[in-house]
Design a protein that fits this description.
CATH architecture: 3-Layer(aba) Sandwich
Strand order of the largest sheet: 3-11-8-2-7-4-6
Oligomer: single chain
Low-confidence stretches: none
Largest sheet: 7 strands, mixed
Structural class: alpha/beta
Radius of gyration: 19 Å
Order of helices and strands: EHHEHEHHEHEEHEHHEEEHEH
Mean pLDDT: 92
Number of helices: 11
Number of strands: 11
Number of domains: 1
Strand content: 5-15%
Distance between the termini: 12 Å
């Protein structure tokens, strides 16, 4: 069901307790906490909104942890120093709803959003209220988020609508890079956000990866070391493409960050739950660098209007079940 509804929360709670016992009760208490947290977050900043920082090009790596970025930083010249900020959310839908708000409307109107994340539909078109997967008994209505409409952006290129890769179950980094370079050259926006889907699962470039990695990690059928290796390899895969982007986009001020991090069992958190307080999920990288179009890459992917694979299917393959 999702959203803010005491009746729905109570109904879901009864079902959870019947199915899961104490664990179900704890999950319902957690969603009560989430509702209270969101009530505060819509009124008072609980993290750093990216529009409070200076950048011309913002590269968002979905679910990227600070420690993972630091682990591979010496492999990339454009990662001289990996700082961190506290994100405004611990899920993509939370981050979008608390980032692209009317209070930043003037800057958003100057922003091109090249986006591979299908949660865009939930926030900006369906106008869904976080939390969207389970109900909370109290919390803010959607109006409290004061989110802009899709027309509030200077330009939106939702790459997931036409560039989704069925084999891998995600929009691949090269497709995102292709479209970002094209938008930069053709539109030359004042500000541009490029939202890659990696290193979020499903992990790419990894043989024999499980369909639902965090279920396997939680049950112990997959070791922490194996899961971490797949995650970091996927981070390398997207950073290889970020390098191409930075060589084919003109921007004096570039920031590389994430919408949220990822949990690998810390405090029993796996993946990323809405309202998650753990720093592994809540703190995200912040790297400042530059970009210069050297013309080494030629875009070939055309944006296609009105062509979209099922958003629900995409989100399910990303682990939102």
């Amino acid at each position: 069901m999702g959203g803010i509804s005491f009746t729905d929360w109570l109904s879901e709670s009864v079902d959870r307790v019947q199915r899961k016992g104490t664990r179900g009760l704890l999950q319902s208490i957690y969603y009560a906490y989430v509702g209270a947290l969101l009530s505060v977050a819509t009124r008072y900043p609980l993290g750093t909104n990216v529009y409070e920082r200076d950048w011309d090009l913002l590269v968002v790596l979905d679910a990227c942890r600070v420690d993972a970025m630091r682990e591979v930083a010496d492999e990339y010249d454009f990662l001289p120093e990996v700082d961190s900020i506290r994100s405004v959310g611990s899920t993509s839908i939370e981050w979008m709803a608390l980032t692209f708000r009317e209070q930043h409307a003037a800057e958003i109107a100057r922003t091109a959003y090249v986006n591979g994340n299908a949660q865009f539909d939930k926030v900006f078109r369906e106008r869904r209220t976080p939390p969207h997967i389970a109900a909370a008994p109290v919390g803010p209505g959607f109006d409290a988020y004061d989110v802009v409409t899709p027309d509030g952006f200077g330009h939106v290129d939702n790459v997931y609508e036409y560039g989704y890769d069925d084999e891998h179950g995600v929009v691949l980094p090269r497709t995102m890079t292709d479209r970002a370079v094209a938008v930069g050259r053709e539109r030359d926006p004042d500000r541009c956000v490029v939202h890659y889907m990696q290193p979020h699962a499903p992990y790419i470039g990894v043989e024999g990866k499980p369909a639902h990695i965090f279920d396997d990690l939680r049950t112990g059928s997959l070791s922490h070391e194996e899961a971490w290796e797949m995650y970091v390899e996927t981070l390398r895969a997207v950073l290889d493409d970020v390098e191409i982007l930075l060589e084919n986009y003109d921007a004096d001020r570039v920031a590389i960050t994430a919408d949220h991090g990822e949990g690998f069992g810390e405090w029993t958190f796996y993946s990323h739950n809405i309202g998650c307080p753990h720093p592994a999920v809540r703190r995200v990288p912040w790297v400042e660098t530059t970009a210069s179009d050297e013309g080494t890459f030629e875009p070939s992917v055309e944006a296609v209007e009105g062509v979209s694979s099922s958003v629900e299917d995409q989100l399910a393959r990303l682990g939102y079940r």
